């Protein structure tokens, strides 16, 4: 009898140990909420297709699992609906992942209750792995994001192993975030900006014409970083010609001598943001034309709107 009791006691102890171990292994929903609250940019590789991540097609705006790219980096923001979180495209600011007719798209923001509710999701412990993540819809709490035929959809959990795997994603921190960029620009006295797609060339200028181009690195491609002349962002002063600043004129970039006018100061102010083609690099948004970014085209520096193309995003992204 004593032997039987001892075996039962050992079994109960084993079950308790397993349960405790499981609790230790799984970090839980509170950990997820904290991670999403404090990680500025994340990527979500699929559990069962780990070489693919939640992304979207730039032209159709359809969300799919695709090979990792700049489109699979998401800026994590407080839920637009007041609950959970929303996922903003890092390559197309003010475009958010949202569901429409149970399919997922990356649509430009619209200030309606429907849009905001459709763009809110609650990260929960992964349905197939408690150390990964699944995404529950805020306005359809019985439905989860899942991929099917590589397309992202919003479906009810049918309890199958296939569904749970399709609805579970890894979490990857891939970007240092805009705060890191602001700090770097605030504390680095001089920087150079090699082009992402022409890494042997950097933002520079021709001494005679003052036209800004991407050129082979030289003293003209070293910029003194100063607080924005307009009171926002930053301005870039030539290190070879003091009191000459990079500024736009007629959507082209020049290095002009300082003039104490509001127009000049606004034209010489730029905001460094996460790189459109690589969130760990940098793009430069105009302060007075916030829908436009610095980019090179035909080797000349210009100020253009983001057309969403891969070419534009690469032309508008620079190393630091």
Task: Write a brief structural summary.
With 320 residues, this protein is an alpha+beta fold. The protein has seven helices and 23 strands. Residues 8-25 have low confidence and may be disordered.
What is the strand and helix layout of this fold?
Elements: H1 2-25, H2 28-38, E1 41-43, E2 53-56, E3 63-66, E4 74-78, E5 85-89, E6 95-100, E7 103-108, H3 113-118, E8 121-125, E9 133-137, E10 143-148, E11 151-156, H4 161-166, E12 172-173, H5 177-187, E13 190-191, E14 202-205, E15 212-215, E16 223-227, E17 234-238, E18 244-249, E19 252-257, H6 262-267, E20 270-274, E21 282-286, E22 292-297, E23 300-305, H7 310-315
Antiparallel strand pairs: 1-4, 1-12, 2-3, 4-5, 6-7, 8-9, 10-11, 13-16, 14-15, 16-17, 18-19, 20-21, 22-23
